[in-house]
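Researcher: Quick test of sequence recovery. Tokens follow.
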């Protein structure tokens, strides 16, 4: 399915998931769709492995968690985050590294201070590799960092595509 992109979310310098200067990070980009979902695009590397040629399950959980937690920004602003309260991950297929992968996340229930969301990680051929559901506490960036971080280390990357295609062939049905 091809998603029209309405914007790209801010990233930071040192974050393990999105940090552009973290040598061991995933360097993920997060794009907001017109349907208020977030698509994460990233390429795990060999140093993210568990078993040979397989990305560690903790990395899979981290990218699903971050994508779902960031989906709240589609409904508020780029300084509103989800702090994880609970995360349930279902692993369906091994996740390779050194290939571009995509995660789609969304909010399923917003109760003010708490919200719930879900997400899926897709392999390049469209196979569903993992899914997650989580519960998050809504927090402003200012509640857990300082103005120096916001001013110097929280920025929008320049690469914002107009659309992103997420293949999905799981059971021949659309999962997104």
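Model:
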């Amino acid at each position: 399915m091809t998603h029209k992109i309405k914007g790209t979310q801010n990233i930071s310098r040192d974050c393990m998931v999105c940090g552009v200067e973290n040598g061991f990070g995933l360097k993920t980009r997060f794009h907001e769709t017109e349907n208020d979902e977030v698509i994460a695009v990233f390429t795990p590397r060999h140093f993210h492995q568990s078993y040979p040629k397989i990305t560690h399950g903790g990395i899979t959980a981290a990218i699903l968690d971050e994508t779902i937690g960031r989906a709240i920004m589609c409904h508020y602003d780029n300084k509103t985050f989800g702090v994880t309260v609970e995360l349930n991950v279902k692993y369906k297929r091994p996740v390779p590294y050194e290939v571009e992968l995509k995660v789609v996340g969304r909010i399923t229930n917003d109760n003010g201070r708490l919200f719930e969301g879900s997400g899926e990680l897709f392999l390049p051929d469209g196979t569903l590799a993992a899914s997650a559901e989580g519960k998050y506490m809504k927090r402003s960036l200012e509640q857990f960092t300082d103005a120096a971080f916001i001013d110097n280390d929280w920025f929008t990357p320049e690469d914002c595509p107009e659309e992103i295609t997420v293949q999905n062939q799981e059971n021949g049905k659309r999962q997104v």
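Helices lie at 57-70, 147-152.
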